[in-house]
Amino acid sequence: MKSDPADLGALQLRQLYRTGQLSPVEAARAALARIARFDPAVNAFCLVDEERALAAARASEARWHRGAPCGLVDGVPTTIKDLVLTRAWPTLRGSLAIDRDQSWEEDAPATARLRAQGAVLIGKTTTPEFGWKAVTDGALTGITRNPWDTARTPGGSSGGAAVAAALGMGALHVGSDGGGSIRIPAGFTGIFGLKPSFGRVPAYPASPFGTVSHVGPMTRMVGDAALMLNVLALPDSRDWLALPYDGRDYRVGLDDGVRGLRIAFSLTLGFVEVEPEVADLVARAAGAFVELGAVVEEVDPGIADPLEIFRPHWYVGAANLLRGFSAEQRARMEAGLQEIAAEGAKIPLLDYLDAVRRRTELGVAMRRFHETHDLLLTPTLPLVAFAAGIECPDPARQPRWFNWAPFSNPFNLTQQPAASVPCGLTAAGLPVGLQIVGRMHEDALVLRAARAFETARPWPLPEAPRTAA
Questions:
Q1: Most CB within 10 Å of its CB: which of 128, 241, 353, 409?
Q2: Residues that are catalytic
C-alpha cells in the first residue's frame, strides 16, 4: 500500500476498508491534509467542509466495521463542482450574482446518488461563472491553476475538479461538460475524464445551455470512473430527458481489451490545426491501439467544422441564462458572459432553428460513420495549457474559448460518449490528452478502450504543484 491514502483510488480504498487495513476517517483526513497543503498554490476549491466530511467518514467507518457498507462508494472522499446543487452547501456557480444567504436544501441527482451510496463529500470545486468558458477563473473565486505549471490554466469549466483529481485532493470528482468542460481540463491536467452519453447521468435542474450539457466523472484512474458512473447513472425522476436505467455495472468487461475493434484515428477531424508536439504524442497513442490488437485506420469522419452550429446553441443558452437575472445582477457578471448573452439575444429564431437542423444532420453523419468504426480517436485539444487568467491564448485568431477547443464540442452536439485519457508529456512537462469517442450509448466501450490504453501506457501524476522555470 502507498504510504499516503490520498494517492489511492476509490477501488483501492474500498478494498482496504474491506480488509480493515485503512479506515474512511484516515482517507478523509489524508484528502483534507492534501487540500491544506496544495490548494493555496492551485485554488481548486471554493468550499471545504472538514467538519461534515469527518462526520460522514466516521459514520462510514462504523458501517465498514459492521461489515455493512451502504453503497459502492462508501467512505470515498468526493468533490462536487460548484455548478451542481449540494444540500447544506451554497452552490454559487462561480458568480457574484448568486445570493449565498439563502436556503440550500436540495441535492442535484449526482450529489444525491453519491451521498446515498456513502461518499464522503469534502467540498466544492471551482468553476468559471456559470461554466460559460473553458478556463477556470472569475471574480468570485480567483484563478485556478494547473498543477503541472501553476503559471498555466488547467482549462475549464471543470478546472477545479481536474486539479483536485490530479493532486489527490479526493478520489472521485463530479464534473459537467457543455462543450468540453470535463475533457478539456482532463487533457490539460493529465487525468481521466468521461462525458457520458447524453441522459446517461440524470441532471437537475436542467442546464440553461440545453441538451449539449452532460454530467460525468473525473478521476485519476479509469476503473474509478467506471465505479463512479455506476452511481451517477442511478435513476432520478427529476430529469425527464434521462435514459432509462438499465442497471449496468460498468466494471464488468472493463479489462476485455480492444483486440479486433475497428478504430478510426483522425488527427485533425479534417479542419483543425494541431501543434506538432501534440500531434506526435497523439499519433503514438493511436499506435498503441494497434499494438493492443485493434484495427486502426487513419480517416476523418467526413464532417465540416461545426463551430457555426455550436455557437448559436451556446450563445442562446447564455441569453436564456441571463434573462433570469435583474439588471443589477447582470452588471456584476463577467464581461465575456454578458457579451455572448447579448449576441445570443440577437440571434433570430429561424437562424437558431437552422442550427438545430444542422445539428441533427451532424448527429446522423456521426451515426453513419460509426456503422463502420467502433471508436474514433482524436486529440483532446490541439494545444497544451496556456497562461492562466485569460480566455484565449491568441484572441486575434481565437476570439472565444471554443475556437481553441474544436475537438470536444462536436460531440456535445451529437451527444456521444467521449473521454480524455493522458497520452504523454511534452518536452516542457505539460500533459497531452487523447480523446476516445464512442457510438451513442456505448459508454462501456469507451471506458474499456480507455482502460486498455491506461494498462498499456500508464500515465504519470504530479507529486505536487510546480512552476516551470
A1: 128
A2: 81, 157, 181
